[in-house]
Model the fold of this input.
Amino acid sequence: MEGQWYDAEAGPLVRPYAMTGGRTKPGPHGVRFDLIALVAVTSEGADGTDAADESLLGPEHRALLGLCRAETQSVAELAADADLPVGVVRVLLGDLLEAGHVKVSRPVPPAQLPDERILREVIEGLRAL
Done:
């Protein structure tokens, strides 16, 4: 039976829902992490002073903190570097955010494109020259 939990090429097999405790949404506040949201370790945890608190975290939480300590990363980069599904990373980041280990800066919304009518008027004005 022990062989079914370990794959020689893939390593230990752990289902994503086991990493998140069966949760699919981050935290009780329903925080939503965009793929391009930037995640950084809070100033208190940047130098590793919260080692006692971190010892209570799971290995995936600690791996994400380690990646964020190296440099500020987007949610998508964290998922790729940790080799975890994005949904799992969002839930784990929600835990870290609520515990005060990380801070998230929301991406700046892209500038709205000018109205098509204005673009047509500009083109007509250029043609008139």
Summary: The longest strand covers residues 38-41. The beta strands are 6-7, 11-12, 38-41, 73-74, 102-105. Residues 114 and 123 are 13 Å apart (CA to CA).
